[in-house]
Amino acid sequence: MKNYIKIFALTSLFALGSCSDDFIENEPYTDKVEENFYKTPQDAFEGLVAVYDVLQREGYGGWLLTTEIASDDCYGGFGTADNNVSLDWDRFEFSSDKEMNKPVWETCYIGIYRANILLENLDNVEWGADEDLKLTYEAEARFLRAHFHFELARVFGDIVALDHTLSSEEFETPRSSAEVTYALIAEDFKFAADNLSDDNYSQPSNSNYGRITKWAAEAYLAKAFLFYTDYYNASDLAGVVSKTEATAYINDVVNNSGHDLVGDFASLWVAASYSQDIPYAGEGNNEMVFAIRYNSSGLGDWNLHEGNRFQVNIAIRGGNLGPYAQGWGGATVTPSLYNAYETGDTRRDATIIDFAGEELDFDAEARGQRQFTGYAWKKFCPITNEAGEALVAANGGDFQIDNYEDYPVIRFSDVLLMAAELNLDSNAGFAQTCLDRVRERAFGDDTHSVTASMENIMNERRLELALEGHRYFDLIRQGVNTAKTAIDASGMGGEFEVNFRTETEGWFALPQSQVLLSNGTIQQNPGWN
Fold first, then answer.
1. What is the 3-state secondary structure (H, E, C) of 359-392?
2. Which of 141, 231, 275, 348 maximizes the CB count within 10 A of its CB?
3. What are the residue ranges of helices labelled H in 381-427?
4. Where does residue 170 rank: exposed (0-12), middle (13-18), buried (19+ CB within 10 A)?
C-alpha cells in the first residue's frame, strides 16, 4: 500500500507538470486556507467565532490565577508535593521558572492574531445584502483584540502592540510604548462602543447571547482609562479618550444598558447558591455585562477548550468535601481578606469557604494542602450532587477540564464602582448613589452607607470583586508602594512570608523564550534578571 501511494503521487506530479503550470496557482479544494476562505458572510462569521474561541483558554496558567496569587487576597497554595511555582507567584520571585507566564503571552497573542486575520479579510467578503454585518463583525473583532492587548499590558507592561499580522521581516519587532499600546486599545474599544447596537444579550434565549455588546465596550473603555491614567499618571487614555468621555461612557452603561444588580449576591455563584440553598441566578443573569462562557460539552476531550479549566485549580484539595467538589487547592485565601468583611456583609460567606465555620473536617496534612489558612475559594468552586459525587463527573465529564461556570470579566457592580470613581469630582451625588447600590445589596439594607471617597471605593472593590481578577491591578494602579504595603506578609513564618519587590514596577516576568527569540529587541522586565 505504501509503495502504491508513492507511485501514484509521483505519477500525478509528472502528469500535472506536463499538462500545465496552472496547478501552482490553483486554490486548494479540500482545505480551508486564508487565500480561499473569506468569501461569504458565513466565512466571516466562522472567523469571528475563532477569535471568540480563544477566550475559553484560561487554562491552568492564566492571568486570573497568576494575579490573584500575587495579590494580598491569596497565597500560592496547591499541594505540598507540587513544585514551588505557586510560591514564586506568591512571593513575586519567579526564581525557578522564567516560562511561568508563557500561557498568558501565547493565549493573548493567538487571540490578537486571529482578530487581525479576520479584520484584514473583511473587505474580501461578498457581503451583498448583509453589508451591516461587516461593521458588526469589525466592532466585535476589534473589541476582542483590545481585550487581549489589555490583558497583556496589565500583566507585562510594555508589549508588542499589533494592529496587523506580522510579515517575516517584522518577527523581531520591539515592544511598543505604553502610549502606543493603550492608544490602540482605546481606539478599538471606542470603535466597538460607537458601532455596536444597544441590545442587551444577557438572556440565553437571545440568539446573540454571549456576544460583545456596546455596553461591554463602554465599560471596558472606562476600565482601561482608570488603569492607564492611574498607573502612568496621565490625564487621558493615550490621547484618545478624555476623562469626560470615559465618564460619559460608564454613565451610559449605568443609566441605559438595562443591566442591573441581581437581588442576592450569593445567587451569582453556583457553589454559594447551592451551599446556602438559594436559587441560582443563572449564567444569563442581568448583572453580567461581559462574561467568558463555558460549558461541559467536552466530556473529557482534552483537545477541546469548552470547560472552565481554571475551576479545578482553586477547588478543594484531596477529594470532595461536603457540597464542594475536588481540585488542586491552589490560591488559598488569606485571613486578611476574610477579616476585611464587616459583620452582616453577605458577600463574605458567598465568596469564601470557611472550613471551621461551615463545620467541614479538612485535614490539611492528610490532603497534602500547602499553606492551609482555613479558607478557600467559594466563587468558582465546583460542586457535588446529593450523592457526594462531583457534579460534572456524574454528568459524564472530567472534573479537571469540564467544569462550566462562566467567568465574569465585568459585572454591573464593577460598572457601578467605576462610575462612582469617575464621578467623584464632577458629580459626587451620583458617585454616592452608585456606591450605595453596591453596599445595599451586600448588607440587605440601606443603613451601611459610607462616604464616596477613593479609599472607600477601592475597599469596596476589594470586597465586591474579590477573587475575580481585579485586586492586583487595583493595587498597582495606586502605586507600587501601596501595593507593597498591602501585599507584604510577615508574622506567620515560613511559606507565608511574602515580599513584594517594587523594583519589578508591578510587572510580571516575560517568558524567557520570547526574550531569546527576539534576538535582543525585547529585554526582560525590570527586577527579573
1. CCCCCHHHHCECCCCCEEECCCCCEECCCCCEHH
2. 141
3. 391-394, 412-422
4. exposed
Rg (CA), the chain: 24
Which residues is 384 bridged to in the sheet? 390
Residue pointed to by grid coordinates 469564601: 352
Q: Give the DSSP letter string of 90-124.
A: HHT---S-TTTTHHHHHHHHHHHHHHHHHHHHGGG
What secondary structure does DSSP assign to 464-482, as a single string? HSTTTT-HHHHHHTT-HHH
pLDDT digits (tens, 9 = 90+) for 153-164: 999 999 999 999
Q: Which position has the grid cell 525557578?
A: 96
Q: How many CB atoms lie within 10 A of CB 314?
A: 29
Q: What is the mean pLDDT of the chain?
A: 90
Nearest partner of 220 among 244, 240, 190, 196, judged by Cα: 190
Give the whole-angstrom CA distance, residue 286 versus residue 262: 7
pLDDT class for 95, splitting at 50, 70, 90? low
Q: Is the pTM of this model over 0.85?
A: yes
Q: How far is Cα 182 from Cα 432, in angstroms, rounded to an integer? A: 29
C-alpha cell at 5: 501511494
Q: Which residues pair with 212 in a beta bridge?
A: none
Residues 6+ apart with CB under 8 A from 469: 63, 64, 67, 68, 409
**pLDDT tens-place string over residues 344-396:** 999 999 999 999 999 999 999 999 999 999 999 999 999 999 888 989 988 89
What's the pLDDT at 22? 41
The set of residues, in sequence order, having a beta carbon less than 8 Å from that of 224 and lying 6+ positions away, is 146, 150, 182, 185, 186, 189, 237
Cell representation of residue 58: 484560561
Cell triple for 137: 463583525
